Amino acid sequence: MEVLDFVSNLILLVAVVGLFVYIKWYSSTLSSNVRNRLQTHEIIVNILLGFIVFFVIYNKEVSLSYRYFFFILSVVMHIGSCYLMLMHINRKANVYSKSYLIFHNGKFLKGAILKNDLSEEDIIKSLRLKGVLNLREIDTIILEADGELTVIYKEKVSEQINA
């Protein structure tokens, strides 16, 4: 009987933690903004939130109706906060509708990268998703207002000069 209780509590813990992480992950995929990727610290915070909710709903001293109420309230509040963050990120791109030069002549431009809360690793990961494997092939990278990266290759620049 104790093993069954342990397994059922473990399944409940994994389900609650998984639900909180999934809600945050799903909300981060709804944005087309490059900067809105699920970060390690966000995963850790959502795991901790899931643990807190689990321990409250696991507490047998609290009545069952209060445990249900707390669980539903915490999930609704989490969904609401993720939605508000998503709306803020999507509006921020419209408010600051500017393009930034973030890479030119083989060098990252640190000021523009920092201003847009990016890192070189984020840019390189996004480039890999676009199929760019070698930075030496690139002349310029522009961060567009919608968060997309525009890549201008060295070959295209030399063809435009020769034409």
TrEMBL record:
The keyword Membrane applies. It comes from the Bacteria. The chain crosses the membrane at residues 6-23, 43-60, 66-86. Keywords: Cell membrane, Membrane, Transmembrane, Transmembrane helix. It is a multi-pass membrane protein. It holds the Pfam family DUF421. This is DUF421 domain-containing protein. It comes from Chryseosolibacter indicus. Its main location: membrane. It is found in: Cell membrane.
